[in-house]
Amino acid sequence: MGGLTALLRFIPNLGVLVTAALLLVVSAVTLDDPMLMLVVPVGYILLNTLVGVFLEPVIHGYRLRVNPVIVFVSIFFWGWLWGAIGVLIAVPLMTVILVVLSHVPAMRPIYQVLAR
Questions:
Q1: Are 63 and 40 in contact (CB under 8 A)?
Q2: Domain residue spans of the chain
Q3: 64-78 in b/e burial notation, b at 16+ Cβ within 10 A?
Q4: Which of 14, 33, 77, 86 is the most buried (most CB within 10 A)?
């Protein structure tokens, strides 16, 4: 189950839902209490949400040499502006903006503020 979970993690959103559904089926087969059956998939979704909202932006910010605060602000801004779609495209959009800023000489000071 762990290997399948790792592979499904590469499919955004759908992989998490499929994994949670599989975990629900496994817990329904092995556990008797309906409340306990929900603990495993809900726990997985909560853990995955924490990783996606906090850990991954920090890692992307470090790897792309972007200030992690800027990554968080970008996620919140695009999420506020476009909702769930904005949250999904916030980090790639921030990457594109930083590449453009780094290649335009007039925008270089803004890039230096946003980058580490």
A1: no
A2: 1-56, 64-116
A3: eebeeebbbebbeeb
A4: 86
